Amino acid sequence: MTSMLLNSMWSCSVRPSWGLWCVARSLSTTAQIQAQVQTKSKKTLARPGLKNIVLVEGVRTPFLVSGTLFADLMPHDLARESLLGLLQRTGISNDAVDYIIYGTVIQEVKTNNVAREAALGAGFSDKIPAHTVTMACISSNQAITSAIGLIASGQCDGVVAGGVELLSDVPIRHSRRMRKTMLALNKAKTLGQRLSLIGSIRPVHLMPELPSVVEFSTNETMGHSGDRLAAAFGVSRAEQDEYALRSHTLAKKAQDDGLLEDVVSFKVPGRDIVSKDNGVRPSSLEQMAKLKPAFVKPHGTVTAANSSFMTDGASAVLVMSEEKALAMGFKPKAYLRDFVYVSQDPKDQLLLGPTYATPKVLERAGLSLNDIDVFEFHEAFAGQIVANLKAMDSDWFAQTYMGRKSKVGVPPMEKFNLWGGSLSLGHPFGATGCRLVTTVANRLRKDGGQYGLVAACAAGGQGHAMVIEAYPQ
Question: 10 Å Cβ neighbour count for 176?
Fold first, then answer.
């Protein structure tokens, strides 16, 4: 497939220096876009006989570069802080929800059900069940949609969904041979058996198995896949750097303007109070151009500057039936409407989840791309985002790979990730989905729009998209 894409997609290039154009447009036309969306009047997506399910509130810890202020914590510490932030923000009692679900990717073996440990640590009633899910970078998306399913089926009225990742401290295993020896030692009954097993240990057995963000089915890192995808769609290094600069520039503006209201301050034990993301670092194209390729060397185009960075953080949202939320005195932020999950070839289409999921979720909701006022796409790599935009704008790709008659089209950049994204805010694998959904709800409230769309890719060639509708103000 890659060779076909290389030969066929060069004609789909976005205009030169489009990233810088997007920055200027995004920063200069916000008021104009707000005025436009506030005048729109669209139908609601409520359906007879189906419960309205709402997002009451969403919060997150600051997202910090791994190895910084969260480095000495454990994942359940971060998850607990997001739960405490949600309790404080909403004022809900610790026994007023029916279930708690958290997403995570790299699990801490001491707290393999991090949702339960975090809930107990945050003071939630021990009568509230909790479980943990994993679906790579869309783990907290899965937590949210699992919550929707529990409420829609009548099992629950209120569910807390969230996600957490602490990449500062990930499990490092002994070699398989060493693990076998250690397990056998634990079962040995005599001194002779123990000495024999100890004597069988060789220096090579002591080499640890380090974790790596590698696709099990392809043995290829996501960075390599991102580099190949960018090459297949003719995404230049300059385009990637320009998009990454856009993300950091918009994130810095959102920080300075106080728009990232989902962030809750956190007093790190023995350290400072942390109140904002620390990976937002607008640079210059000249500085970014000096960096060497990070994965495909020496000719790759994916670098540290145009990739999301290793991040620690947690997020949480309160999801309820509309009836229950109103009965408890809440004013919801948004309706959670249609969603889809998709899956593609994990080798050549690993990061194309948004391209496949977006048209499907729009069709389920009976909407078109033009109906969407707010877009929030997960930014794994700048090249991944630009490649998805080119794929979405290609009739050839739609017809050849998606079985569609025509392309879905490109989201207007004036509506796209206007408060930054994973490239700048950070990407704690298990926690990003909740950030995306909460950001859509907050942007809709601020700008007066009605519909928002979340989309994300994930390891394994999977993806997710959801339509969110603003709650009437």
Answer: 10
Residue 29 burial by CB count (10 A; 0-12/13-18/19+): exposed, middle or buried? Answer: middle
CB of 138 closer than 8 Å to CB of 456: yes
* Topology (CATH level 3) of domain 2-41+50-170+214-465: Peroxisomal Thiolase; Chain A, domain 1 (3.40.47)
Domain segments of the chain: what residues?
A: 2-41+50-170+214-465, 176-206
Checking if the pLDDT of 38 tops 70, the result is no
Active site residues: 137, 457
Percent of the chain with pLDDT over 70: 91
**Average pLDDT rounded to a whole number, residues 85-114:** 97
Sign of CA dihedral 374, 376, 377, 381: positive
**What is the C-alpha separation between 156 and 364, in angstroms, rounded?**
24
Give the separation between CA 172 and CA 337, rounded to whole angstroms: 40
Element (H, E) at 56: strand 53-60
Which pLDDT value is given to residue 19? 46
User: Token pair of 137, please?
Assistant: 């970078």
Residue 285 identity (one-letter amino acid): L
pTM of the model: 0.91
Question: Cα(376)–Cα(438) distance, rounded to whole angstroms?
Answer: 10
Residues in Cβ contact with 453 at an 8 Å cutoff, skipping those fewer than 6 apart: 358, 361, 362, 372, 374, 375, 376, 411, 440, 465, 466, 467, 468
Confidence at 7, pLDDT banded by 50, 70, 90: very low
Point out the least confidently predicted range of 17-26, 73-82, 179-188: 17-26
Furthest-apart CA atoms within the chain: distance in Å: 83
d(CA 215, CA 213): 7
Decide: 64 and 274 in contact? Cβ < 8 Å: yes
- Three-state DSSP class for residue 96: coil
| Percentage of residues in the chain having pLDDT higher than 90 | 86
In b/e form, how buried is each residue of 91-128, taking b as 16+ CB within 10 angstroms?
ebeeebbbbbbbbbbbbbeebeebbbbbbbbbebeeeb
Examine the pLDDT at 15 and tell me if it is beyond 70. Answer: no
- The DSSP line for 191-227 is HHHHHHHHHT--GGGG--B----B-TTT--BHHHHHH
Across 412-441, b (16+ Cβ under 10 Å) vs e yields bbbbbbbbbbbbbbbbbbbbbbbbbbbbbb
Secondary structure of 338-403 as H, E, C letters = EEEEEECCCCCCCCCHHHHHHHHHHHHHCCCHHHCCEEEECCCEHHHHHHHHHHHCCHHHHHHHCC
27: tokens are 């920063």
